[in-house]
Amino acid sequence: MLCDLGGAIRRNDFTDEAASKDVMARTNHYLELFYEHALSEEQSIHSHMREFVPDIVDKLEGDHQAIEERGAVVKGIILELPDAAGPEQLIETGFRLHQAFNSYVAFFLEHLNYEEESFLPLTWQYFDDGQLADMRVDILAHNPPERNIEWLGGIFSSNNVNELAELVSGVQASPLPQEMVQGLIGLARNTVGEERWAVIEKKMAKSAA
Ligand SMILES: [Fe+2]
Hints:
By secondary structure, the protein is mainly alpha-helical.
């Protein structure tokens, strides 16, 4: 998601107003999306983990602050574009924007990697599967449905079939309302396509046997 967007900014012709507007709208949208994701983590996960690992939670929330600051630099440069005096200034502003976005992505990816490698295993140490599922449900319950669809669509399209089989089984077993469960499973199926869905169903049946 972020790397694709970085490529789109890199390739964009900043003298083309319509093309720039489109890429800038996508950039602003993703910055907002990732900021909301940080808030969700703080509300639904960090609030429970703080009791056990306060220093690590402080580090992660400090990272979120730093990510937001880097995002604010990107947004500030986007706001400069309409005031550019001509093609040269547009190109120069686009170059600075790409650099600022790269800085944002580099920091963000390092943060994500820390969460995956260090923080996630810690959550398994302090909470059981049911409690972790409750935290995920809490995140879903706090987000508007269209945001959940966007996030989950991204997860469904980027995960492998083994991860997806586990994820879909978790959704099926969750205490979410049946309507939402069916909606999420339909979204997963549509996103991955029939061929991969058949593999996922086989894997789910095998692990349930
Ligand atoms: Fe985070």
